[in-house]
Amino acid sequence: MTDNPADAKTDPATGQSWCVDVAGWPIDLPIVAIKPDFAISLMMVIDLGVRFGAHVGQALAAKLKALEPDIIVGAATLGIPVAIDVTRALGLDAYVILQKSPKLHLANALEQRISSITSKGEQRLLLDRAAVPLLKGKRVVVVDDVIASGSSMKGSLDLVRKAGAEVVGIGVILTEATEWKPMLGADEHLVHSLAHIPQFSPDRDGTWKPRAGT
Ligand SMILES: O=P(O)(O)OC[C@H]1O[C@H](OP(=O)(O)OP(=O)(O)O)[C@H](O)[C@@H]1O
């Protein structure tokens, strides 16, 4: 036990869940406390199976097809299956992943700093210079599983543009709350999502309820 409230740990498991309809496919997401008075509902797309992956790939492709993308870009880690499923559903082949692990071959990569709502501290997004020719002058759609603070997506957009691509759209399975809108600024209108999730505060009896305006 600690006397300093700042040292107190929040138990992330609330035992509650939030149901969201993802383009006709309902999923239950655990509500996870990040602070004593703040929780999110957490989608781990890699735990939802290949049929769900194919479903979101097809549903996002249906929204993104008219933008005529040449190639899809996704950010590690949870943006990887989304990028693959959307690429497959659009009938494309190549895709580009923005990595987070500083592999040996990425020593000279293009780099952007990000800090997402679900990961502690600052992270780096890395674009392999060998992938730049796949993007330069191309129509690109950037995908991810979730956009929340918008930091990860903003970093992805900056990197893709540094590589000389035109970003014609953004595809996400879920938008979360609204913080991402000012973060993306003029790029907000590029976002296509399959569903929206709020953020949560506890009411007096400890039940987590959607925060107003989220
Ligand atoms: O809008 P934001 O606040 O940036 O949050 C969204 C990002 O957070 C998650 O990634 P995370 O950083 O947890 O990394 P992971 O995909 O490697 O698990 C998610 O996959 C998005 O990329």
Description:
This protein has 214 residues and is an alpha/beta fold. The protein has a domain at 50-195: Rossmann fold (3-Layer(aba) Sandwich). Helices cover 22% and strands 36% of the residues. The protein has five helices and twelve strands. It has helices at 49-64, 79-89, 132-135, 151-162, 180-184; strands spanning 13-22, 25-35, 38-41, 71-75, 95-98, 110-114, 123-127, 139-147, 166-176, 191-197, 200-202, 208-210. The strands form four sheets. The chain has a five-stranded parallel beta sheet, with helices on both faces. α1 crosses α2 (79-89). The longest helix is centred in the first third of the chain and has 16 residues, at 49-64. Mean pLDDT is 93; it is low at 1-7. The chain binds 1-O-pyrophosphono-5-O-phosphono-alpha-D-ribofuranose (PRP). The site of 1-O-pyrophosphono-5-O-phosphono-alpha-D-ribofuranose has 21 residues, from β8 and α4. Residues 59-182 form the Phosphoribosyltransferase domain. GO terms for molecular function: glycosyltransferase activity. Keywords: Glycosyltransferase, Transferase.
